[in-house]
Amino acid sequence: MLWLAFGPSHAMENQVLVIRIRIPNRGAVDWTVNSGPQLLFRDVLDVIGQVLPEATTTAFEYEDEDGDRITVRSDEEMKAMLSYYYSTVMEQQVNGQLIEPLQIFPRACKPPGERNIHGLKVNTRAGPSQHSSPAVSEVLPSNSLKKSSAELKKILANGQMNEQDIRYRDTLGHGNGGTVYKAYHVPSGKILAVKVILLDITLELQKQIMSELEILYKCDSSYIIGFYGAFFVENRISICTEFMDGGSLDVYRKIPEHVLGRIAVAVVKGLTYLWSLKILHRDVKPSNMLVNTRGQVKLCDFGVSTQLVNSIAKTYVGTNAYMAPERISGEQYGIHSDVWSLGISFMEPLQLLQCIVDEDSPVLPVGEFSEPFVHFITQCMRKQPKERPAPEELMGHPFIVQFNDGNAAVVSMWVCRALEERRSQQGAP
Ligand code: ATP
Ligand code: MG
Q: pLDDT tens, 339-382?
């Protein structure tokens, strides 16, 4: 099974999985599974059937980090749920927190009968293999265990961010104008990424930047980095965003095409979302594509505030290798220019490999990459802006269509493995 071959952590494969089955208005039943990653959708339905014998359950739901309910109806969706859950476990382990059970909510069921709720003992049928013989261990009250992350997001997004509540930890990186820190937000207990930029500007311009950043509160896409707030202290602005534990794409080498494909899908969706809000990214490049161990890919550092972009540009030189030719020659910037940068960002791994294969050769390594991938990049990098694919053409391109399957597990496994490798190279335990 894929999971066993590429699980995010070998330790996790052997970890006991506790699934907390929530029963409407009544509480919950904990089910201990000895080998979670191999669990099938059918096994879970079987157990739900025994916990709620009078109900007809055809699916169940779990909650993502925003408190949104995600439905599970197949083994594929089970895999995505488990991958998401194991990444939260990893996060909890890293932060030294208690490991929470995986909570699921049976769906489309008639209300269960009175019986079998207190002092419940369920004898489950033996599943298709020994790992799925569950043991119901306890009954819990129905009150929520912790503040939902959706609530947390609201609190964070209420403009209540300030310097006093933030404890700066590691430096995540320096860019052309700012430094990004991993930080701890004391009131919420949440880890953030805070970008600090020195700007010697008037109070008036500071206000203008703050109001231009307002639109970030409205950005609500799983392909765009979450924004928690911004504030000025003296001559520096701090911009607080969601922390992505996989970091940016520029530090990953040799990304296999089936992973790169899924990343490209997320980037195209993120850009399409921004364009739909009439926002041009203006700085598409691998260091502004962030990944996490949940397999999510999100865009950051897009130019919502003209004033911020201008203020930074006054201090720092603003050209880079990802910029479209028309931008370098000072012509008009448009969606097409973002598309160029998208193409060149994904061309980089090709080039890296090409250098390894043959330093002088200007052609792409034959047979190394699929024809749709090479075509996608070539189209994005047409010299004439108008010849590059428009947003809907990007989404319909065979390379994007091929990998548009919502399989976050592929990216999640790859990020987890790369992080593990990095850790072991650095000699960490
Ligand atoms: P530039 O300033 O030219 O855009 P850059 O993108 O490399 O270059 P920064 O935006 O300052 O520079 O980011 C520095 C580094 O911090 C990034 O390369 C990335 O690895 C890391 N980083 C940025 N935002 C986050 C985040 N939200 N979560 C985790 N790491 C981040
Ligand atoms: Mg950046």
A: 999 999 998 665 544 444 444 433 456 577 899 998 999 899 99
- pLDDT tens-digit readout, 175-187: 888 999 999 998 8
Q: Return residues with CB closer than 5 A to ligand 2 (ion).
A: 175, 288, 301
Q: With a 6 A CB cut-off, is 178 part of the ligand 1 pocket?
A: yes
Q: Whose CA is nearest to atom 5 of ligand 1?
A: 175
Q: Which residues pair with 230 in a beta bridge?
A: 239
Other beta carbons less than 10 A from residue 144's beta carbon: 10
Q: Which of 144-148, 219-223, 305-309 has the highest mean pLDDT?
A: 219-223
Q: What are phi and psi of 410, to 5 degrees?
A: -60, -50
CA angle in degrees (0–180, nearest 5) for 297-94-11:
90
- The answer to whether 345 and 289 have CB atoms below 8 angstroms apart is yes
- CB contact at 8 A, 246 and 267: no
Query: Is the distance from the beta carbon of residue 288 to the nearest atom of ligand 1 less than 6 Å?
Result: yes
Query: Among 242, 326, 338, which residue's Cα sits nearest to residue 283?
Result: 338
Sign of CA pseudo-dihedral 208, 209, 212, 213: negative
The pLDDT value given to residue 309: 84
Q: Which residues contact 5 (CB under 8 A, 6 or more apart)?
A: none
> Burial of 72 by CB count in 10 Å (0-12 exposed, 13-18 middle, 19+ buried)?
buried
Q: pTM of the full predicted structure?
A: 0.67
CA 277 from chain centre, in angstroms, equals 21
**Distance between CA atoms of residues 261 and 411, nearest Å:** 10
Ligand 1: atom nearest CA of 241 is: 27
Tokens representing 86 are 């194991």
Q: Would you state the structure tokens that stand for residue 197, as one six-digit string?
A: 């930029």
Give the model confidence (pLDDT) of 120-156 as tens digits: 333 333 333 333 334 343 333 333 333 344 544 554 4
Dihedral, CA of residue 283, residue 284, residue 286 and residue 291, to nearest 10: 100
